[in-house]
Amino acid sequence: MRTKRLFAAAMVLLLTACGPLHPSISETAGEDPYFSNQTPPSLEKARAFFQEGKYSEAIGQYRKLLKGQDRNIAERSQYQIAYTLAFYKNPKRDFQEALNEFQLFIRRFPASRLKEDAANWTALLSQYLAKRSENEKLRDDIKKLVDIDIEAEQKQNQRR
To answer: What does the pLDDT look like over 5-57, one tens digit per residue?
Structure first.
């Protein structure tokens, strides 16, 4: 009974705590609380690229926005670059590069309200990359063991 209650409590906590991980995906220009009522056309263009699945173009547009004078737009753009690099629908996603971009975001914008999200992404991506590296090593070890086993079996068959 206690296990069921713990499970139910965990599910409620999980479901109520899970808001959108990425604040701007569902936001339109007028709803974005991060900016004033004036959203620059270049930011709209980057968002449109993202929503159309043109992820490389979106990243390119966000990179252009990093060079501008508006710190809020640069902050959001840096976050969006990292997010887009990790986005599951992006066929060219690059988790290592996304991790680097999230780390850069945290260094450049330590007071950002998106810092916790970026830190969460950094932790998850770091763990994923470490596990992927471990898996690759294990795969290599298994291949070596299989090769050794095949070689031993061949030697044994030759003796017969």
So the answer is: 544 444 433 333 433 344 443 343 334 444 444 578 889 999 999 999 999 99
Predicted model pTM: 0.67
Question: What are the domain boundaries of the chain?
Answer: 24-128
The tokens 């936001």 sit on which residue?
A: 27
Tokens of 94: 């690059």
User: Count of CB atoms within 10 A of residue 29's CB?
Assistant: 15
Tell me which CATH homologous superfamily contains domain 24-128: Tetratricopeptide repeat domain (1.25.40.10)
What's the CA gap between 87 and 64, in Å, rounded? 20
Q: Would you list the DSSP string of 52-75?
A: TT-HHHHHHHHHHHHTSS-HHHHH
Helices (H), 25-114: 41-51, 55-66, 71-86, 95-108
